[in-house]
Amino acid sequence: MARSIKKGPYVDPKLQKKVEKINDGGKKQVIKTWSRRSMITPDFVGHTFAVHNGNKFIPVFVY
Question: Which SUPFAM superfamilies match (predicted)?
């Protein structure tokens, strides 16, 4: 079921901090996260996330 439009997108604050830190540093690295409920924002474009599926981390590249 999709999230209600009036609520807006949800991004885990820890995940947002990790992305901002990497954007400021200018280096590329895989970002490990357990937050599967976060929506992809324009800040995430160009990053690779290792998303935990309950068993192992699956790499996801955001175009």
Answer: Ribosomal protein S19 (SSF54570)
